[in-house]
Design a protein that fits this description.
212 residues; binds zinc ion; two-stranded antiparallel ribbon
Length: 212
């Protein structure tokens, strides 16, 4: 079952010609995840910054023209098997998977660095995590709470194939912190700076010409 992305599993360094080749490719792409848009930094300790290079179309050959940079969370969205034990599904058609991934990443970053200067982002993060976990009432009747393991089973039991496909479009993957904690901690410093910069631009100017 095709979930969200048709990309391949991560290309291993030996398939690409070494870690440096993958590092340089991610760098040329601006260190940006091409699915969710988040940015990483590359360091001596983490030469790939918890990003992966994958084949954009898994049917096409392994060559740079068919490569895509993805954060380690988005790269898992190419198969249900890889999502097992890493989170659950929620019904959230109002938000894209990329947007949800970014909000979750930010909320988790707040939780792993509680001493940081998060400002209003910090006070909103836990409220956000609580709010997205209310499951639809209809799920109780089909005895499903969003588990990855039983998604295929639940979809197969839906009566009309059309509604089955349409319904899958409203599901989003809500990943847990644990499987991605190392990466979240690595990204959290940069996310904190972004949160602080956003808040400082939100503050009104000390003196506006209109009020003088
Ligand atoms: Zn991503």
């Amino acid at each position: 079952m095709l979930l969200i992305g048709n990309w391949s599993d991560p290309i291993q360094p030996e398939e690409a010609g070494g870690v440096q080749v993958l590092h340089d490719f991610i760098s040329r792409k601006g260190c940006v995840c091409e699915f969710c848009g988040t940015q990483t930094r590359l360091s001596a300790k983490e030469p790939l910054g918890h990003f992966h290079v994958c084949r954009l179309d898994r049917q096409l050959p392994n060559e740079p023209a068919n490569w895509v940079t993805l954060c380690c969370i988005c790269s898992d969205l190419n198969s249900l098997d890889k999502l097992k034990g890493k989170g659950s599904f929620i019904e959230a058609p109002w938000i894209s998977q990329g947007q949800l991934t970014n909000l979750l990443r930010l909320a988790y970053a707040v939780s792993v660095r509680p001493e940081a200067e998060w400002g209003t982002v910090g006070s909103s993060a836990s409220a956000f995590l609580n709010a997205i976990d209310s499951t639809p009432e209809a799920w109780a009747s089909i005895k499903w709470a969003g588990q990855v393991e039983s998604l295929q089973f639940v979809m197969d039991r839906m009566v009309h194939p059309f509604s089955r496909g349409a319904y899958a479009n409203s599901l989003r993957f809500r990943f847990d912190l644990d499987p991605y904690e190392d990466a979240i901690r690595y990204w959290a410093v940069a996310l904190e700076k972004l949160a602080m910069a956003a808040q400082s631009t939100d503050e009104p100017a000390a003196e506006s010409p209109d009020t003088i």
